[in-house]
Design brief:
Order of helices and strands: EHEHEEHHHHHHHH
Mean pLDDT: 97
Number of strands: 4
Strand order of the largest sheet: 2-1-3-4
Number of helices: 10
Bound molecules: glutathione
Radius of gyration: 17 Å
Strand content: 5-15%
CATH architecture of the largest domain: Up-down Bundle
Number of domains: 2
Largest sheet: 4 strands, mixed
Low-confidence stretches: none
CATH class of the largest domain: Mainly Alpha
């Protein structure tokens, strides 16, 4: 049985959890915070979460985990069958993670934890996020799912990352840069949130947020 390590505050943890649920793969969850402890570094090279334990060993990096799950458990596929369409799905995910989420991440300290970003950082991030969102709209369909009629891995990533980026940009700039570039995003979130496993992951995330901020 697979064990998923991390915590539900993390969009990358929730991505992996939603993939496991949608694919119908049995798993346990074990709460671990990102850490530089030797025990964690042995399992995840920079001490980041999420990581999983399989019968063959540990695996980190959410996208690598998702691809492993798809290879090892072909039932309930998260990618289209056609090789080109599969590649388009990966292109969407890589663009969103590399060119938007990783950039917007520099706002999370201010948006979530009250540690202000400099004006220079905010300016630079805003320009890159805006260019990234324009690029995303050259790839996305949202009809009703990110890449068309069918749910795919692109939706797992889009729902989680776009929700977080919307919140962070609203807090830092007073403007939701996701809604600004994705006109139908509210309907898209509604479509996603009608899925039972999405609701389960959202409930886990909301409980984690509540307990984290209750302790502060
Ligand atoms: N590329 C990684 C990103 C994972 C990541 O950034 N995790 C965050 C939590 S959302 C973390 O562990 N941060 C701690 C750190 O960067 O040291 C993945 O896809 O799994």
């Amino acid at each position: 049985m697979i064990t998923l390590y991390g915590f539900a505050l993390s969009n990358y943890y929730n991505k992996t959890k939603l993939a496991l649920l949608e694919k119908g793969i049995p798993f346990n969850e074990e709460m671990v915070a990102p850490s530089q402890d030797a025990a964690v570094l042995k399992r995840s090279p920079l001490g980041k979460i999420p990581f999983i334990k399989t019968e063959q060993g540990y695996l980190s990096e959410s996208q690598v985990i998702l691809e492993y799950l798809e290879d090892a458990y072909p039932e309930h596929p998260l990618y289209p069958a056609d090789p080109f369409e599969r590649a388009k799905c990966r292109e969407f995910i890589q663009h969103l993670e590399l060119n938007i989420e990783l950039v917007a991440r520099r706002l999370y300290g201010e948006a979530l934890f009250g540690s202000p970003a400099s004006a220079e950082t905010k300016d630079e991030v805003r320009k890159k996020v805006e260019a990234g969102m324009q690029g995303l709209m050259r790839l996305a369909r949202f009809e009703p799912y990110a890449l068309g009629a069918s749910f795919s891995a692109a939706d797992i990533v889009a729902w989680l990352h776009l929700g977080l980026i919307a919140m962070a940009t609203q807090k830092v700039y007073g403007e939701d840069l996701v809604a600004a570039y994705v006109p139908g995003v509210a309907d898209y979130f509604k479509t996603m949130e009608s899925r039972p496993f999405v609701q389960q992951v959202a409930a886990g995330r909301d409980a984690a947020i509540q307990s984290f901020f209750a302790k502060k």
